[in-house]
Amino acid sequence: MAKDLTISILLDFYGDMLTEKQREMTELYHNEDLSLGEIASDSGITRQGVRDSIKRAEFQLREYEERLGLAQRFHDIQDTLGQIIQCAKEIEGYNTRFCLSSEISRKCSEIVELAEKLGE
Fold first, then answer.
1. What digits encode the pLDDT tens for the residues 15-27?
2. Cα–Cα distance between 64 and 56 in angstroms, integer?
3. What is the dihedral of CA 7, 9, 15, 21, to 10 degrees?
């Protein structure tokens, strides 16, 4: 099975909605980089059982994302915050070149600080 970074991200958002066993096996496989055989050995089930559990979990995670869209929304918000920061810095640059308003400079810095805080 090829490992998909998307599953690690979806686990962060929806992992608690899986069964404990599904979440554990999927985290071990995708986040800890354990093989199916290693997980099977630790879990006391067959390699095929581990694979089936992980595949069901991956399907459920994708289904949750399709219905709820939390990971995509988070990604979109991060992108928008980056654009807000860039715009505020450009405005501050224009202010420095043309106006030299301390109020504009202060507000631009405040916008950048707030956007960075939201992006954490």
1. 999 999 999 999 9
2. 12
3. 40
